[in-house]
Write a structure and sequence with these properties.
The protein is an alpha/beta fold. 33% of the residues lie in helices and 21% in strands. It has helices spanning 26-35, 66-71, 74-90, 113-124, 137-141, 145-154, 169-182, 201-209, 247-252, 278-292, 310-324, 336-339, 346-354, 357-360, and strands at 11-19, 40-45, 49-54, 102-108, 160-164, 188-195, 235-236, 238-246, 259-268, 301-303, 331-333, 362-363, 387-388, 394-401, 405-412. The strands form three sheets. A ten-stranded mixed beta sheet has the order 5-4-6-8-1-9-15-14-10-11, with helices on both faces. α3 crosses α6 (145-154). The longest helix has 17 residues, at 74-90. The protein is globular, with a radius of gyration of 20 Å.
């Protein structure tokens, strides 16, 4: 692998590892998106009983022992699984990679709530005697845990970071990786986003107290972005992690290339804790386009962030109309309608669900969109059934989060 300084290096995606509520490989995930198959199911959570959630069913013992799982975290387990899958998929000669030149950059929404809730619950059985508190608490709950667990599992001695960026975090993990590759701080980046959110009752309880937790008699129909009958968020877990390399290194080893990251942007609303801001979202989208050297009508697919909350969907629609309203060739879809909101993993999974469109010339739909909210109406929305689209070359991925953090990532089909 090369070293030196080169701030304008092209960066490409060469390996994919994921777990989602409706698939544990890219092929399975993509197949279920095109088939309209939801991954939302009933789920029992402490103090609240049955809720609806996007639940992953990956083989946690594929790369870890039972002891590893007991000592670590759910977010760490998801990260370890997806990171190893990405390395395998990349075809890289892992035993001979210089591990000090590998960086791990994982976006998260929150971390540590699961373990803290569980530990408080356990000591409640012993009249809150702190002597029974686990000595694993601190390494489980430090913010760098998921990425750190990956380095321990895989023997990586280069830098590792988790990037706390709320629900913009999946994109943020990729953005950090691109920057570190271009600075030649690392030669290989393992990057993306992860979430363990369904294992903490506090997230469900908080959304419920806001009146923003989705309910439906048919779990598969609960996540309904842009639909007039939407009633909130379906919380999901998951992970989407990729290997990223400078193009020169990928070509030198004849790697397969899923796509090239050509533009990105992050900004802040600076207006509210939870309410989104269409003007700032528009600015973020336009900044990413400008950095990529693209015009709005160069984009083939926009992967929307929409979470099925009324104001969130409407504000994003405003931003999308302002940027893409005069671009009839742009197709707009939504992945949360299939799997719920995977928080820190959302942006990564939503990007990965669309990347196969470069090869199959299909745009997956937004499902459960039976009665389009007029405030969210856009001619470009792909509704309930996938759409064929010849020559797909450019994807734009929106991810926005609480405290007003926005992220946009643009990926192009690789061309020499």
């Amino acid at each position: 692998m090369t070293s030196g300084i080169g701030q304008l290096d092209r960066v490409v995606i060469t390996g994919v590892g994921l777990t989602s509520p409706n698939g544990d490989t890219l092929a399975e995930f993509r197949g279920n998106l095109l088939a309209g198959k939801s991954g939302v199911v009933p789920f029992e959570t402490r103090y609240m009983g049955e809720v609806l959630a996007g639940v992953c069913r990956y083989n946690a013992l594929k790369y870890q022992t039972r002891k590893d799982l007991r000592r670590g975290t759910r977010a760490g387990s998801i990260s370890v699984y997806c990171a190893n899958e990405a390395i395998v998929d990349s075809g890289i000669d892992w035993p001979n990679v210089h591990k000090d030149r590998v960086g791990v950059y994982l976006g998260i929404t929150e971390h540590g709530n699961v373990e803290t809730e569980n530990e408080v619950y356990e000591i409640s059985k012993f009249d809150y005697d702190a002597s029974v508190w686990t000595h694993h608490h601190n390494p489980r709950t430090v913010a760098n845990n998921p990425a750190g667990e990956v380095t321990i599992n895989m023997g990586i001695t280069g830098p590792h970071l988790t990037i706390g960026a709320a629900c913009a975090a999946g994109n943020a993990g990729f953005i950090q990786a691109v920057q570190m590759l271009r600075l030649h701080e690392v030669d290989l980046a393992i990057a993306g986003g992860v979430s363990e959110s369904i294992h903490t009752f506090g997230i469900f309880a908080s959304f419920q107290s806001q009146g923003a937790l989705a309910r439906h008699e048919d779990p598969a129909k609960a996540s309904r972005p842009f639909d007039l009958a939407r009633n909130g968020i379906v919380v999901a877990e998951g992970g989407g992690i990729c290997t990223l390399e400078r193009l020169s290194d990928a070509l030198a080893r004849n790697a397969k290339i899923y796509g090239e990251i050509v533009g990105y942007a992050m900004n802040s609303d600076a207006t509210d804790f939870v309410l989104p801001n269409a003007e700032r979202q528009e600015q973020c989208i336009r900044l990413a386009l400008r950095r990529a050297g693209l015009e709005p009508d160069d984009i083939d697919i926009v992967s929307s962030h929409a979470t099925a909350t009324e104001q969130g969907d409407i504000e994003e629609t405003k931003a999308l109309r302002r940027v893409f309203g005069d671009c009839p060739g742009v197709a707009i879809n939504n992945t949360k309608s299939f799997i719920g909101h995977a928080m820190g993993a959302a942006g990564a999974l939503e990007l990965l669900g669309n990347i196969p469109s470069f090869e199959d010339d299909m745009v997956h739909a937004t499902i459960n969109l039976d009665n389009l909210d007029p405030a969210c109406a856009m001619d470009q929305l792909v509704i309930n059934h996938p759409r064929g689209k010849t020559g797909i070359r450019c994807l734009l991925n929106n991810s926005f989060g609480m405290l007003g953090i926005n992220s946009v990532l643009i990926v192009k089909k690789y061309q020499e």
